[in-house]
Write a structure and sequence with these properties.
- With 251 residues, this protein is an alpha/beta fold.
- It folds into two domains: 153 residues, SPOUT methyltransferase, trefoil knot domain (Alpha/beta knot); 70 residues, Trp Operon Repressor, Chain A.
- It has nine helices and eight strands.
- The strands form two sheets. A five-stranded parallel beta sheet has the order 2-1-6-5-8, with helices on both faces. A three-stranded mixed beta sheet has the order 3-4-7.
- 24% of the residues are buried.
- Bound molecules: ligand 9D3.
- The site of ligand 9D3 has 15 residues, from strand 5.
- Ligand 9D3 binds next to strand 5.
Length: 251
């Protein structure tokens, strides 16, 4: 199914510059997804084309005005199939994750609304938002980078976007464990550091076990919450115990 994204933003050049590359660029070229920006400034009707104003109650910064953003959202929505969703990007939103990306891949279309300055007039969210999303607990300057992250994460899940090998890999991992370490040539670097011997030996069963052990061990050490509620097989538990009995990595 074709996925249509519309990005409501005061910085349309940011969207154009980012989506032309890599997996997203290929999906657009092949007609599997469409992306276009809609600028609220084009819908501002006053002589200064203003899109923001001072906050009621006082305080620093500016707030995005309802009228120009609302008109931009409605114009964007008219370009999309019925049932498309309106997603605001903002620090108060629900945390975006892979499960939501998978759900969104079935939506057919979405309008991604990017904030700037202190944020949106609350009445805009009340009237137009189906949901509000955040990337996590850090401060961005606006929603554009977050909208691009959503577009990237969703586009790579669309049927036909990734090659068969990449899709199979994505399916088998699907966000459950952190990845194992990777190595490529040269076998020994200038500073003398080599590659784990098991990866050079050609014993595919030993390599599978080492990679699984690394994935389990790194997940347990770095992101223990990802293992909560996951039942380990006897083999996995033994590999993890062995890893945890070993030396503690730094960082
Ligand atoms: C420094 C201003 N902050 C005062 C408490 C509030 C604030 C307003 C607007 C903080 C960030 C922003 C702009 N951020 C986004 O639009 C945004 C965002 C983010 O900052 N972090 C994680 N995810 C997202 S999605 C959109």
């Amino acid at each position: 199914m074709m996925m249509q994204f519309r990005v409501v933003t005061l910085f349309p050049e940011m969207v154009a510059a980012a989506v032309g590359h890599g997996v997203c660029g290929r999906a657009l070229e092949r007609g599997l997804a469409g992306v276009a920006a809609v600028n609220p400034r084009d819908f501002a009707e006053d002589p200064h084309r203003s899109v923001d104003d001072r906050p009621y109650g006082g305080g620093p910064g500016m707030v995005l005005k309802v009228a120009p953003v609302q008109k931009a959202i409605r114009a964007a929505r008219e370009q999309l199939p019925a049932g498309a969703r309106v997603v605001f990007l903002g620090p108060q939103g629900r945390r975006f994750d892979q499960a939501l990306a998978r759900e969104m891949a079935g939506w057919g279309g979405m309008v991604l609304v990017c904030g700037r300055y202190e944020g949106f007039d609350e009445r805009l969210l009340e009237a137009e938002a189906d949901c509000e999303l955040s990337l996590g607990d850090f401060v961005l300057s606006g929603g554009e980078v977050a909208a691009l992250a959503v577009i990237d994460a969703v586009t790579r899940l669309l049927p036909g976007v990734l090659g068969d090998e990449e899709s199979a890999q994505a399916d088998s991992f699907s966000g459950e464990l952190l990845d194992h370490p990777h190595y490529t040539r040269p076998e020994v670097l200038e500073d003398g550091r080599g590659v784990p011997a098991v990866l050079l030996g050609g014993n595919h069963e030993a390599i599978r076990r080492w990679r699984l052990q690394q994935a389990l061990g790194r997940t347990s050490r770095r992101r223990p919450e990802l293992l909560q509620g996951r039942v380990l097989t006897a083999e996995e538990q033994q590999l993890l115990d062995e890893y945890l009995a070993g030396p503690v990595e730094t960082e």
